[in-house]
Structure prediction request, 239 residues.
Amino acid sequence: MHSSDCLVVIPTYNEVENIARVIEGIRRYAPELDVAVVDDGSTDGTASVAAEKGAKVIRLPFHMGYGTAVQTGYKYALRSGYRYVLQMDGDGQHEPKNIPDFLRELGEDTADVVIGSRFLDPKGTRYRGPLLRRIGRVLFAAVTSFLIRQKVTDPTSGYIGLNRKALEYLSRDIYPVDYPDADVIVMLHRAGFRIKEIPVIMYENRSRGTLHRGMRPLYYIFKMSLSLFVTILRKPGEG
Prediction:
């Protein structure tokens, strides 16, 4: 894979305390990759710090939601001619030393979509997270595995590699605007895309901008359940 083939897309919202460390980690383990930070209406200087660290910054006019920020990065990658995207969060949760693993899988064409799972870490790192989030993760992992007839351990990962074919599909209007997780995996499978999980290291999320705090996990469980239901009803490949 050539250095110009892959773009790292980082959706962010009020991550001024973490974004510099995230970009530095990418530079340490994959200095050849371009980085695009999609700033989802942050009010804390996230965009300025990202620009100072040399990332391409795409600023949304106001807070539009995680899914919109992610898809904005996908569309930018397509317009810019990238063949692959590696999606990471801006809160420092994703370990950048795993980036070469994604690049290898994408370059060898073992899958169209490569998902980093914190529960396949060969070193046995224990990841827990907030209780409600854990409940939702276990529930949606079971439902997703059942629906696609393939074991899925981490449908809420957010640490994802995509080839251009998957990028083109997910850049359509069918993509969820708020919490794209298990529903997107089911959608991709029904459209015929190859999906593979690989082990990654992930850290506890202590970000102030995260959806994990307060009552947001309950809202997430409700919205994801509804989105999965709609995805099941939709014809495969429809959009």
